[in-house]
Specification:
The complex is a heterodimer of chains A (113) and B (114). Chain A has no helices and twelve strands. With 113 residues, chain A is mainly β. In chain A, strands 2, 5, 6, 10, 11 and 12 form a six-stranded mixed beta sheet that branches. A four-stranded antiparallel beta sheet of chain A has the order 3-9-8-7, with no helix packed on it. In chain A, β5 and β6 form a beta hairpin. The radius of gyration of chain A is 14 Å and the shape is globular. The N and C termini of chain A lie far apart (41 Å). Chain B has 114 residues and is mainly beta. Helices cover 0% and strands 48% of the residues of chain B. Chain B has no helices and ten strands. In chain B, strands 2, 4, 5, 8, 9 and 10 form a six-stranded mixed beta sheet that branches. Chain B has a four-stranded antiparallel beta sheet with strand order 1-3-7-6, with no helix packed on it. Chain B is globular. The model of chain B has no long low-confidence stretch (mean pLDDT 93). Classes of the chains: A mainly beta (113), B mainly beta (114). The interface between A and B is medium-sized, with 23 and 22 residues.
Amino acid sequence: GNSVTQMEGPVTLSEEAFLTINCTYTATGYPSLFWYVQYPGEGLQLLLKATKADDKGSNKGFEATYRKETTSFHLEKGSVQVSDSAVYFCALSDTGANSKLTFGKGITLSVRP
Amino acid sequence: GAGVSQSPSNKVTEKGKDVELRCDPISGHTALYWYRQSLGQGLEFLIYFQGNSAPDKSGLPSDRFSAERTGGSVSTLTIQRTQQEDSAVYLCASRPGGSSYEQYFGPGTRLTVT
């Protein structure tokens, strides 16, 4: 079955530091890939997506590239802000019958001023 | 436009009681999902509705869990004879359908079984 593996957390960075959160996946076929973010006390929000190999999703300064050869979808941001403190989930949706999302375990990011 | 809404936002119930959780998807979205978020298990798929098709119930953890979707819109997740291990945040999501696979989530219902 499908699975998503995220790097272990939590991660603590200083403001303006570079961020990388690793995500690899196992899936049959050609899944769509997503990063969701959950800010404290809030629900899951779609951060970015990529639907095919070599696609780059981007939003709010975050980027991730769909790498089929390494089955990866690492999240990056060049300069994090305190407001980026949240839990980040990598997820995939197969393009089959129910297109349910399979999530990684999530990683907590804390950015200190 | 309006996003996915869920009610109640919090629910505390006694072990053995039944609970109903409600989800209003984004207008026009044909696909609706329920997930459960708990500390030990992360985010788990529960059930999927698409239009008027039979739901995919493959993620429901036991026969105490059921869900329905009326008129292709509002959905209700029912948990009968609640147990302490049912304590979690229950999330609803909707999707436009077709070739668009991103899902939009509601704020969730935090269920606590005492």
